[in-house]
Amino acid sequence: MVLILLAVGVWFALPHLSGLLGFAKEETGTPESLPPAAYRASSEAGEHPAAAAFDGFNNRYWAPEKAGDGVGEYLEADFAQPVRMMKIVVFSGTSARKDEFLTQGRPARITVELTSRDGEKSSRMLRLRDQAGQQTFDVRGSGTVRARITVDAAYGSGEDRRTAVAEVEFFGRRE
């Protein structure tokens, strides 16, 4: 009798198990890399285009056309299909190497704005440390088709320096 009840319980629970297992994978699994299909910037300094911030190398960088603190300048990335954004990795400055890192300005604070497929926007302000290397942030959004990273403040800015971003990487799941 117990086995029959157990078998009936499993039978009725099967349709719901896949949803529970998918939720568990979503929350505990390793997010995958989500390279953008297209990218652009508010402006670009000659040899430092927006593409350099999304090329997978942290020794090339994007910098805005005008020197200074770069406040209001942005990078924008589009995804070919909607994604579930989970994490953003930023390498600020010109390089992940300490000796090259300090040669230009670096973002101190950025705003990440995610746009979903239905046009809904959500944003989050992030504070970056003034140090070379990878900085990882939890930034979540469902159905994300575009991400914009706007510079709000900078370290080491000056009239002859540009605020630089070496690399931006997105992680999550394809929907």
UniProtKB/TrEMBL annotation:
Pfam families: NADase_transloc. This is NAD glycohydrolase translocation F5/8 type C domain-containing protein. Residues 42-170 form the NAD glycohydrolase translocation F5/8 type C domain. It comes from the Bacteria. InterPro entries: Galactose-bd-like_sf, NADase_transloc. Transmembrane segments: none annotated. It comes from Streptomyces nanshensis.
